[in-house]
Amino acid sequence: MSGHSKWHNIQQRKGKIDVIRGKIFTKLGKEIIMAAKNGGSNLDINAHLRDVVAKAKSNNMPADTIARAIKKGAGELEGVNYEEIVYEGYGAEGVAIVVVTLTDKKNRSVATVRHAFDRHHGNMGAAGCVSWMFAKKGQLIIERTEEMDEDEIMMLALEAGAEDFNAEEEMFEIITAIENFGTVREALEKAGFEFASAELTMIPDNMIPISLEGAGKVQRLIDMLEENEDVQDVYHNAEYPEEFEG
């Protein structure tokens, strides 16, 4: 994915977060509940919960809301039982799309996800049809400023266990193995760096350049999916043209 495409997607996502803050908190709350349910409420022991809580804090989620979600996941408060279901398919021009949902109603989620694909020139496929094109990684994005020392950030990240470091015009991207994500994030935080994005993600092995028309179709599909209350994350391998504004 080109630096422009990555930064475009991040800026666009941050803008949406500002507009639909409540919906983002709902999604993050589900993620915290699942992490606490699967690994317990102790952040010192549950590395995944620690990472999700850090992600929630970076999105300015209130501390009491985070604490309540942890208690729900740990069974200390009554809560809804969510199930993670992953859907896969293709968007316009053969773009691969992976949709991760957390839902308490499987029939609802599959129907609404399929409707989004059908409405926006896509096709939902069988499990595994496109996920093999992606690798599960940790991804940290730091917005670049003039006073930042590229070598310092790179060495700090690599010494903490990062797999890769990419310097772009507007940002630095640090890629980690899933198990090293928390360690690298904490090392950079202690050094005073803030993140435009810090999350466990699915990174495509190869990007597919698409036309301006195709970019519009793909983005409308992604927008509809991300507005779905059951959808947690949407991953794709589309490389948008430089002139695409979203």
Shape: globular
Uncertain regions spanning at least 5 consecutive residues: none
Q: Spatial order of the strands in the main sheet?
A: 3-1-2-9
Largest sheet: 4 strands, antiparallel
Question: How many DSSP E strands?
Answer: 10
As for the number of domains, it is 3
Strand content: 15-25%
Helical stretch tally: 8
Radius of gyration: 18 Å
CATH-derived architecture of the largest domain: 2-Layer Sandwich
Query: In CATH, what is the homologous superfamily of the largest domain?
Result: YebC, transcriptional regulation domain
Quaternary organisation of the protein chains:
single chain
What does this 3D model show about the protein?
By secondary structure, this protein is of the alpha+beta class. The chain folds into 3 domains: 3-74, Orthogonal Bundle (Arc Repressor Mutant, subunit A); 83-132 and 206-239, YebC, transcriptional regulation domain (Alpha-Beta Plaits); 133-204, YebC, transcriptional regulation domain (Alpha-Beta Plaits, 2-Layer Sandwich), CATH 3.30.70. The chain is 45% helix and 23% strand. The chain contains 8 helices and 10 strands. The protein has helices at 3-19, 21-39, 47-58, 63-74, 106-119, 150-160, 181-190, 212-226, and strands spanning 83-90, 96-103, 123-125, 134-143, 164-167, 171-176, 197-204, 208-209, 231-236, 238-239. A 4-stranded antiparallel sheet has the order 3-1-2-9. Strands 5-6-4-7 form a 4-stranded antiparallel sheet, with helices on both faces. A hairpin with a 3-residue loop joins β5 (164-167) and β6. α2 runs antiparallel to α3 (47-58), α2 (21-39) packs parallel to α4 (63-74) and α6 crosses α7 (181-190). The model has no long low-confidence stretch (mean pLDDT 88).
